[in-house]
Amino acid sequence: MDTQCVVVGIGNPYLQDDRAGVVVIERLEQENLACRTEVVYTVGFEVMDKIRGCERAIIVDACMLGNEPGSILEVGVDDIFSTHALINSHAITLGTTLKTGYLCFPEEMPADIRILLIEVKEIKEFTQQMSPEVEAAVEIVVERIKSLIAGKVAAG
């Protein structure tokens, strides 16, 4: 198990498409990857605690940016503050949390953070059934993360 890499899924496991980040982690845990996996339920400081001490972090969250449901956006921390569509979204809280981590714990924060955002269709209903668009996006994100991790292993 590579403690230098962590994948964090953010979401509510009981709230339709908001559970996408949690489901990605559940699927990745079945893959026996060389990367630690974590689930958190908010974008607050718990995220920072999960990634501190790692060289590399991949964070998966649901978003509502007005894109086509099931769209996937891959960004870095700085992109959150420079991409107009993200500035008024819940991603800005995640970005602020990560920036705070870099200010408070510069030696402990990952050098490489990738954030994968999945556009939701429906988040109001309490159900463990995601919309088909988001379900398909979850599969794509799982494969993307597997290739990101495999690329790291092959290069290292």
In short:
It is built from six helices and five strands.
Please explain how this structure is put together:
- There is one protein chain.
- With 156 residues, the chain is an alpha/beta fold.
- It has a single domain (5-151), classed as 3-Layer(aba) Sandwich (Rossmann fold), CATH 3.40.50.
- The protein is 42% helix and 20% strand.
- It has six helices and five strands; from the N terminus they run βαβαββαααβα.
- It has helices at residues 20-29, 45-51, 77-82, 84-87, 91-104, 132-155; strands at 5-10, 36-40, 56-63, 72-75, 112-119.
- A five-stranded mixed sheet has the order 2-1-3-5-4, sandwiched between helices.
- Strand 1 (5-10), helix 1 and strand 2 form a beta-alpha-beta unit.
- The protein is globular and about 40 Å long.
- The chain starts with a strand and ends with a helix.
* CATH top level assignment: Alpha Beta
Residue share in β-strands:
15-25%
Number of helices: 6
CATH H-level superfamily title = HybD-like
User: Total number of β-strand segments?
Assistant: 5
Radius of gyration: 15 Å
Largest sheet: 5 strands, mixed
Strand order of the largest sheet: 2-1-3-5-4
Give the overall pLDDT as a whole number: 89
Question: How many domains would you count in the coordinates?
Answer: 1
Shape: globular
Helix fraction by DSSP (H/I, runs of at least 4): 40-55%
Low-confidence parts lasting 5 or more residues at pLDDT below 50? none
CATH topology: Rossmann fold
Coarse structural class: alpha/beta
**Span from first to last CA?**
14 Å
